[in-house]
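Changelog note: in this version the structure field was regenerated for every chain. One regenerated record is shown below for reference.
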Amino acid sequence: MKEINLTQFESEVLNGGKVILDFYSTECPPCDALAPKFEALNELFGKEVKFLKIFRQENRELAEKLGVSSSPTVLFFEDGKEVGFRLNGGIKRSELFEGLKIILGKERVKEIKSEIKPLTTYCDVAILGAGPGGLTAGLYLCQAKIDAVVIDVALPGGHVSTTHQVSNYPGFIDPQPGYMLSHNMSEQTKRCGTTYKVAVDVSRVDLEKKEILIDEYETIKAKKIIIATGTKYNLLNIPGESELKGNGISYCATCDAKYFIDKEVMVIGGGNSAIEEADFISKFASKITIVHQFDKLQANKQAQEKVFTNSKIDFIFEHEPRSFKKVAGKIVTEIEELKSGKRKTIETDGVFIFIGMKPNLDMFPKGLELDKWGYINTDEDMRTNIDGVFAVGDVGSKKYRQITTAIADGTIAAIAITKELDQ
């Protein structure tokens, strides 16, 4: 696979036939998660499609010319023209296949995919999710000489890897960069001997049979399953949001704040994530407007004190966004005052959305017992209502969701499983 720069764009892309181009950045977990998928598809399709990478931070002029404002962004070209759709953020292998169908045709893609031979892997415990809860469970199981496989659609770390700084993790006097904290957790579990299957697509899960199909060809068969899939960002689901995702609208400050140097942005939300990330974004942006639906922030007091004394940050309370449009390179956000119903528009260079989370349960068939908010019910040993299936971390029903509570869950589940398998 070849990496290009601005000067090679014309010869390699515009005159390059069938091309898939990945704009990537450093310190970008979604970019890291995409890399192995991109390389694997290059092995399969590289004779007929040119797979290229370009470092966005050093080729900003080209990125801006093409309207690329998020990392990673994958573009598809045929005979010098961009075709199909763009892919942004947490890009799935299946989405890349859909793009390949546009430039190669469905039948050719199907023909090449048919060359992939099915594979079955056996283990004692399959852990779905490589956040703090899943990694801790893997560490304890490995140390108990139990064969565990950690499976994740992204890279290890979960939300911790995209958190700017973690100041309340025991054992560290100074705040820790989230990506380093998650990296250390991952390396500790990996060096113990836990097998990793990360940056994969989870194609199917059968909790009763304890079978997990990944990337449409490898079946993981286990004696026990731990669900540690965590949560995902809530969407506003208003006009313009999906269309502008990765093109002015972002959900990851760590990934994209660096592209708004001396620019104006809007942050939507008022909880811990929104306020802590707004403070981080202020290191780059010239002005930040926080739009929040309530009359006061919900973040912890320490985070509030930081943003209230930050001269770059303004607040608009008791308002909600109603739509987004892109006009002349700017994001025009329509917001509504909740008391009066009056609407107005605000123009910024970008928008960051942080409005809470919901559990990642889309991959599972019906049958799990959930609480009224949609989180998995467990007993004191993290067992679910399905025999041999456990749930740990943020995906479970609980009062508090923190790194430390996820780690506690992973510890409990691993010890309970160890006792069961040793009987």
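Spot check on this record: The first strand starts at residue 2 and ends at 4. The domain at 119-232+357-422 is CATH 3.50.50.60 (FAD/NAD(P)-binding domain).
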